[in-house]
């Protein structure tokens, strides 16, 4: 349903809403509403999802063309900072990192979530046995997936990494990740897994040899890790880790969505205040004489 909501429809809903005279904060989706809704002054700002990164930009453009200036938008950075993409869209802000999940996982919120679902003894044993932190384990595999996603975007390889619909089947992270140690099983396992997932979904997928070539070339480059990794991948890997490697029996640990919701709940205002995004939004709010935050 969400994929059929057009920017025009979202913009029209805002323009036709005579019950609210404040400003609108346009975000990508419901996860963003849950996160920013914790911090934003909802008396003066109404948070509206556009259901997509590009759709947020389009909604802002449409509203601007129609003379409506009581709006701002926040989008995930994705690979924009790696490509040094610039947007000439008034009131558009980007996350510091690839997306909101990466922004959260950088902080103590990650440890807080793991301790909710798993015993301290198992956490300490995992990190001792593997000689690394859980965060670094997540980032290591997230980096490998990030390289392939970046190669796919740069060279139009025709790979697919997520279902068309929110309730569709996702990629199987256990195909290229050891669920006991959360170690990467290798480039070939990753590429084969994503090719198999993409096969029925992408008629324009390139040959495996070409995918391998560009993946290897991309891995040779040096990128900011927090711009490269995808938070959705990290949260799926975290679910796999807590369910399998750390043997969590917590009934609240249902799926990846429960992990992402828990990360959002554990992300505190003090963490957010340390971001460049907060600083930029605060400057904008102050310059307009508004009170964006609680």
Give a short summary of the structure.
51% of the residues lie in helices and 6% in strands. The chain folds into two domains: 108 residues, no CATH class; 168 residues, no CATH class.
Q: What does this protein structure show overall?
A:
- With 294 residues, this protein is α/β, with parallel strands linked by helices.
- It has helices at residues 7-15, 30-36, 53-65, 80-83, 100-105, 109-117, 120-130, 134-155, 187-198, 208-219, 225-228, 231-245, 256-266, 269-272, 276-287, and strands at 23-27, 45-49, 71-75, 92-94.
- The longest helix is centred in the middle third of the chain and has 22 residues, at 134-155.
**Within the largest sheet, what's the order of strands?**
2-1-3-4
Strand content: 5-15%
Integer count of domains = 2
* Number of helical regions: 15
Helix content range: 40-55%
SSE string, helices as H and strands as E: HEHEHEHEHHHHHHHHHHH
- The 3D shape can be described as globular
The whole-angstrom Rg is: 20 Å
List key phrases describing it.
four-stranded parallel β-sheet; 294 residues; alpha/beta; single chain; 15 helices
List the helices and strands and how they pair.
Elements: H1 7-15, E1 23-27, H2 30-36, E2 45-49, H3 53-65, E3 71-75, H4 80-83, E4 92-94, H5 100-105, H6 109-117, H7 120-130, H8 134-155, H9 187-198, H10 208-219, H11 225-228, H12 231-245, H13 256-266, H14 269-272, H15 276-287
Parallel strand pairs: 1-2, 1-3, 3-4
Helix pairs in contact: 1-3, 6-13, 8-10, 8-12, 12-13
